[in-house]
Amino acid sequence: MTMVYAHRGASAAEPENTLAAFAAAVAMGADGVELDIRRTADGALAVHHDAHLTDGRALVAVASSDLPDGVPLLAPALDACGGVIVNVEVKNFPGDPDHDGGQAVAEAVARLVGGRGMHRRVLVSSFDLAAIDRVHQVDPDVPTGYLVLMAADAGAAGPLVDQTAGGGHSALHPHHIGVTAGLVQRCADAGLALNTWTVDDPGRIAELAALGVDGIVTNVPDVALRALGR
């Protein structure tokens, strides 16, 4: 069965990356929730997509006690997701004010997940391979996924699939434009789940499910579930 992950929660129905969006996704019947993590000035794990808040302040310059309403920390966000799977994306881009070369955020996420005994409910992903490598080093039992953009060429994707599996990671997360039957099969052969993003069109959701993808990240989990006949 193809799993439906709510992108930043049910972000078409509620403000993204909020407790309300996560609760709405659960209420809609989503199999999982995807959310984004960055660090605050005091090293707390805040759920926020962008490096800057809407008022222009860099998130990394703001203490957790001064976060605006609507920017939760990771622990209460996990609680708001109930019993569904949570895909925690570690944001760590060079050039961002909170770029974390030492991978302290990835390590903190791994320790939080492990400390809460949530190995079966959380998957940590990132576009930064070093971040998920660090998660795997800290706690090999925390599943990890590599976020990528790739051309629709399963042959060219082979080394990337091998690198991801060889690093001990659990999943490859390509943009849906790059998903082909060949890539799905390569991932399956390597023991990787293939979760793709971000897809709101019901027809495309059905196509991807027919290809055999393991998960689809969407802003509209209710629409996706209907497209899959659920």
Q: Percent range for helical residues? A: 25-40%
CATH level-two architecture:
Alpha-Beta Barrel
Indicate the CATH class: Alpha Beta
The counted number of beta strands is 9
- Give the CA-based shape: globular
CATH superfamily: Phosphatidylinositol (PI) phosphodiesterase
Percentage of residues in DSSP E strands:
15-25%
Distance between the termini: 10 Å
- Biggest sheet: strands, sense, closure? 8 strands, parallel, barrel
- Point out poorly predicted stretches: none
- Class of secondary structure makeup: alpha/beta
Indicate how many domains the architecture comprises: 1
Radius of gyration over all CA atoms, rounded: 17 Å
Assembly state here?
single chain
Mean pLDDT: 97
